[in-house]
Automatic annotation (TrEMBL):
Cellular component terms (Gene Ontology): cytoplasm
GO molecular function: hydrolase activity, acting on carbon-nitrogen (but not peptide) bonds, in linear amides
Listed transmembrane segments: none
InterPro entries: Ntn_hydrolases_N (IPR029055), Peptidase_T2 (IPR000246)
Species assigned in the record: marine metagenome
Protein name: Glycosylasparaginase
Lineage of the organism: unclassified sequences, metagenomes, ecological metagenomes
Amino acid sequence: MIDRRKFIKSISALGISIPALQSGLLAKTPVAKKNNPVILCSRGEKWGRKVLKPGWDILRKNGALLDAIEKSANVTELDPNDTSVGYGGLPNEDGVVQLDAQIMNGPDHNCGSVACLEGIKTPCSVARLVMERTDHIHLVG
């Protein structure tokens, strides 16, 4: 059985060799073109095509990434058959549908979030308004 010291030594030796390996690998790796958008979905092709189409359309026209993210999220939020979020979301123990959402702009790390919204079908859009129009990060209610 390996003890903690031997384990740490073996990990640190590996840590030193990784940058050396990467420098050799990176020199041979072609650089991807930056102007080709990529959009991914982890929930299956049928669902993904429906949800990601508005975002893809925005990106293809050189639109803003944040617009694409918001509009793709809105598709799920407005689907009454999707019980995970939005309009079709399941009610809480009091029988009230309360929605939460968060959005972040990667380049400047600005973010906005909302929780416990009632009577709003697109909480992602409200979270974006919190990010862009207030000094707050998170609003509840």
